Amino acid sequence: MRYQITGKQIDIGEALQTHVKNELVPVMQKYSARATDAQITFSKSAHEYICEVTAHLSTGLNASAKGKATEIYAAFDDCVEKIDKQLRRYKRRLKDHHKDRVEPVELFGASSYILAGEAESHDEEPDSLQPIIVAEMETKIPSLTVGEAVMQMELAGAPVLVFRNEKKDGVNVVYRRDDGNIGWIDP
Fold first, then answer.
1. Which CATH number fits the domain that encloses residue 158?
2. Is the pTM of this model over 0.70?
3. Do 68 and 49 belong to one domain?
4. Helix (H, G, I), strand (E, B) or coil at 21
5. How many Cα atoms are found within 13 Å in the side-chain-facing hemisphere of 78?
């Protein structure tokens, strides 16, 4: 398993890197023995340390968690505890998908745009009806089944996931509704 351990304006020492590797490996092996790589980022916000972990599983799914604490080791341990809970919750489904899927998830390129929010004053008319593009970047759209898409959305903690439906070969969307249920858009 490859590790990318970084700190945002924080010096990450050798002891912390060793601790990260020693603690993360058993959790990944317990639930998904085939994790390919993990990205661990440490940062500081006021008096709290923040740790974000994103683990890429061999099935193409990602598990991510965020932990906060007043000490850097405690923030990492909180984050690992959350990943452990997510993977335990989806262990049966992860194993079932390992059996069905012989190749990793196929990813397709797409453009992603960030649009500027509405103007401060609602009384003024906008100069044009074209939205202001703040950022433009490349993103990847995975080819998944609906069940895998729901699991990926929940593992990543995302409110919405755009994916290519393997069964119908079209672009679909799953999202968390306000009532707590999952919505699925199949155009």
1. 3.30.505.50
2. no
3. yes
4. helix
5. 16
Same domain, yes or no: 6 and 93: yes
Residue 98's pLDDT is: 45
Same domain, 77 and 123: no
Contact 150, 133 (CB under 8 A): no
pLDDT tens digits for range 60-99:
677 888 999 999 999 999 999 998 888 887 776 656 554 5
Say whether both 167 and 129 belong to one domain: yes
Identify the burial level of 32 via C-beta atoms within 10 angstroms of its C-beta, where 0-12 means exposed, 13-18 middle and 19 or more buried: buried
11-70, pLDDT tens digit by residue?
Answer: 888 999 899 988 888 888 776 556 678 899 999 988 999 999 988 877 667 788 899 999
Domain range enclosing 87: 2-98
Sheet holding 62-69, edge to edge: 2-7, 35-45, 48-57, 62-69
Give the integer Cα–Cα distance in Å for 120 and 115: 15
